[in-house]
Design a protein that fits this description.
single chain; alpha/beta; Rossmann fold; six-stranded parallel sheet; four-stranded parallel sheet; 11 helices; 41% helix; elongated
Length: 277
């Protein structure tokens, strides 16, 4: 059995990016439910971990349910929830309590509210400025958050994805909005989502696992794979989303495996488990 096969057999938990791994737009990708069911059947834990901060976990669950996939809200972690949890920890450890102004949608608003933060639209009354994806932003929204940052609000980003995949193609993502704020204020954000460690650490904490027993499956090297490799997770790059095989294999530290999609991963897991039996 190869080293990769042996490592697969020892995997106790798996994280999956969503856009480009589980679905593209409103279209589910092949083999998703079969793989998730196999993980359940073999006693492995799993979670969908997405940098998308626009939706709540319930909204994500409803979205995949409309595609015929069974994923409970508790098995979905978006960067909005990871960011709210991280900020709550910082305040509990000594950062000042204060109101939060956001650039975002329901997912971010709901996550911060549930974490005990009061939201504000007043740029001069905000201790924190948190920015994520917002597909309905206006210039006034941009101006208010920029003013808050200039006024001293700590600048936090849910994720730095420059683009967001849709059925129409790549559109500006949360990272593009962060870049606008940096250009407008001269301030760099603290970013929580992949490839940064806080996102992965929150997911591992929820599942009760360590990096060396966890697999990360993603379609984008610069977020999904590089962050997991830094934490010594096993990684799989799939070709159903952003990056090509050539892109994955050209990296100094490429993914452990590059596969066409989730059906290939399911096949390898079954073979690895059979060889280890």
């Amino acid at each position: 059995m190869t080293d990769s096969m042996a490592t697969l057999a020892g995997v106790r938990a798996a994280f999956f990016d969503m856009d480009g791994v589980i679905y593209v737009g409103s279209r589910p990708l092949p083999g998703v439910q079969e793989l998730l069911d196999y993980l359940d059947a073999t006693g492995r834990r799993w979670m969908l971990v997405t940098n998308n901060a626009a939706l709540t976990s319930q909204q994500f669950s409803d979205k995949v349910a409309a595609m015929g996939l069974r994923v409970a809200p508790g098995r979905i972690l978006g960067s909005s929830e990871a960011t709210a949890s991280w900020l709550r920890h910082q305040v509990d450890k000594g950062w000042p309590e204060g109101k939060v102004i956001i650039m975002g949608q329901d997912g971010l608003r709901s996550a911060l509210t549930r974490a005990g933060f009061e939201l504000t639209t007043d740029p001069f009354n905000a201790a924190y400025a948190v920015s994520g994806a917002n597909f309905e932003l206006t210039f006034r929204d941009l101006a208010d958050v920029a003013l808050a940052i200039r006024n001293g609000a700590r600048f936090i980003g849910t994720n730095s994805d420059r683009t967001y995949p849709t059925e129409r193609g790549q559109v500006p993502g949360a990272g593009s909005i962060l870049a606008l704020f940096t250009a407008a204020t001269g301030k760099e954000p603290i970013v929580i989502g992949k490839p940064n460690a806080p996102m992965f650490e929150e997911a591992m904490s929820r599942l009760g696992v360590m990096p060396d027993e966890t697999l990360m499956v993603g379609d984008r090297y610069e977020t999904d794979i590089v962050g997991a490799l830094k934490l010594d997770m096993m990684t799989v790059g799939v070709l159903t989303g952003i990056d090509t095989r050539a892109t994955f294999e050209a990296q100094t530290a490429p993914p452990h495996l590059v596969l066409e999609g989730l059906p290939d991963l399911l096949d390898l897991l079954k073979r690895a488990d059979g060889a280890a039996a």
